[in-house]
Each structure stands twice: as C-alpha cells, then as structure tokens.
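Continuing from the previous page...

OK, I double-checked the sequence for Transposase against my notes and this is the correct one:
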Amino acid sequence: MQMATENQFVLFYSIRQCPTDTGCFIPHMERLVASSLPMPKTVIADAGYDSEENYLYAMGEEKELSFNSLIPYERENTSYKKDIRHASNWTYEEQDDRFICPKGQYARFK
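Thanks. Re-ran it with the corrected sequence; updated structure tokens here:
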C-alpha cells in the first residue's frame, strides 16, 4: 500500500502487488495524476524508492508534469562483503576461468 500524506493526514492511497517500493512510485503517482486531486509541488519518499527511473519520472523527462522530489540515495549494502557465499568474495583464476570459494572449492559460472 502506498500513501500520500500531508500534515499526518492521508490524502490518497493506492494498492499494488510490487515486492519493493521502487516499482510502486510511478504507478502511484500516475493514479494521483488521474484523480481529481491537485498534484503536490514536492514529493518526499524514503530510500526504498531510489531508482534512476523514479528520478527521471520526478524530473518530468518521461511526462509533461514535473515536481520537486526528495528521494535519498540508498546507502550501499556492505553486509555481503563478509558472506562467503557471495562470489565477489571468491578468488578468480583467469587462466582456468573459475572461482575458488573461501573453502577451497572450484566453481565455474555458466
């Protein structure tokens, strides 16, 4: 569920079947545009809406209507740097085109 609020009052909402907020921003705003409600001058969203597509949409490059937006860039997730299951933590042998996991097992990616 996506909500548009002002001064802690819900002004508009939409329900979508998206696994993340990133894919909900544009459809939610399009429904707001199609309604009889006035468009906000500034849209504030959390980092879950961080995507190039959403930034371009807010700037008006994909439509005529534009508005100011405050969507922070999501901080880089560094938890994978300690995860031995993540291939970026494995040693790559270019000559044999294979990776070696921290436990010494070889893996080829297809």
